[in-house]
Amino acid sequence: MESCDLPHLTSFLEYLFLERGLSRLTLQAYRRDLCHFWEYLAGEGKQDLEALTRQDLRKFLEEESRRGMSVRSRSRELVSLRSFFQYLYMTGRLGEDITELMHSPRLPQEVPRSLSEEEVSQLLSAYDVIPEERLRSRYLRNRVILSLLYATGLRASELGALKVSGIQFTEGVMRVVGKGGKERVVPFDPRAAQAIQEYLREGREALDRTGRSPYLLLNLRGGPMDKRSIWEVVSQGAKLAGIAQRVHPHLLRHSFATHLLAHGADIRVIQELLGHASISTTQVYLAADRRRLQESFRRFHPRA
């Protein structure tokens, strides 16, 4: 397994870590499943990803069933395969997602973890105190990163690709390019607007070495921030704020959706803000909201 040479596996696992915030243990499980599949394909003489069909995947899963693998394990393997082939299609590496019509047994859906509103407040103030003047532009930029991730629910890749020209302060909205190049308009709050404007006035110019970069968030070399850099800003912010748990950009996206729902936002509105193609993807937050209501009931009802 260590010598697995499945094409695009490394970039896929990096996407899962930086974009979706999955743990290293979960990444190991994805890697194990996909390398096992690749090993199976080698035995079948079919190691051309572009030539694979749904039937090849079904045959693999049927073979797993004959070997005595449990329904839950096969379902997990299908999740790994589906995520991998969706990624290949989304990034243009394959012209079709061959897992699109494949269904796995219904299993309990994992409820996304999120920060509390108090923890978010702690995190958003992480870069407020600037220790040295030479760090000013960096801290102002980092404050924008945290503010926008929570204010808009953007993915890290969407935030990194955000252009100054896409921000409309008068209307309080920004144009965001999401998965598959789909553009959507996302609102942002006045406090995020204030953080952006302060960064544009006092910080960004020091980072834009050419004076011509169209991107809002720039690294120390003057290029656009990538997913890994944004992840590091969020992680470091959590440490500065004294938050013990692992914090990453996707956790702020979960927190954005969970808190909107808790305050009465319609699930369809949240779907549009998050840029989900299907409402089923967004409905996982309903489970989180139901759990919150149940916990409140058990805690406060006199007869619970």
Give a topology summary.
Elements: H1 9-18, H2 24-44, H3 54-66, H4 71-90, H5 117-124, H6 136-152, H7 156-160, E1 167-168, E2 173-177, E3 183-187, H8 190-202, H9 204-207, H10 227-240, H11 249-262, H12 267-274, H13 279-282, H14 284-300
Antiparallel strand pairs: 1-2, 2-3
Q: Which keywords apply here?
A:
304 residues, mainly alpha, 14 helices, 55% helix, 4% strand
Can you describe this structure?
Strands 1-2-3 form a three-stranded antiparallel beta sheet, with no helix packed on it. It has 14 helices and three strands. The protein has helices at residues 9-18, 24-44, 54-66, 71-90, 117-124, 136-152, 156-160, 190-202, 204-207, 227-240, 249-262, 267-274, 279-282, 284-300, and strands spanning 167-168, 173-177, 183-187. Helices cover 55% and strands 4% of the residues. The chain is mainly alpha-helical. The longest helix is centred in the first third of the chain and has 21 residues, at 24-44.
Brief rundown of the structure:
By secondary structure, the chain is mainly alpha-helical. The chain has helices spanning 9-18, 24-44, 54-66, 71-90, 117-124, 136-152, 156-160, 190-202, 204-207, 227-240, 249-262, 267-274, 279-282, 284-300; strands spanning 167-168, 173-177, 183-187.
The low-pLDDT segments are none
Q: Reading side by side through the largest sheet, how are the strands ordered? A: 1-2-3
Q: What value does the average pLDDT take?
A: 88
> What structural class do helix, strand and pairing data support?
mainly alpha
Order of helices and strands: HHHHHHHEEEHHHHHHH
Helix content class: 55-70%
Main β-sheet description: 3 strands, antiparallel
Number of strands: 3
Globally, the shape reads: globular
Into which percentage range does the β-strand content fall? Answer: under 5%
Radius of gyration: 22 Å
**Count of helical stretches:** 14
End-to-end C-alpha gap: 50 Å
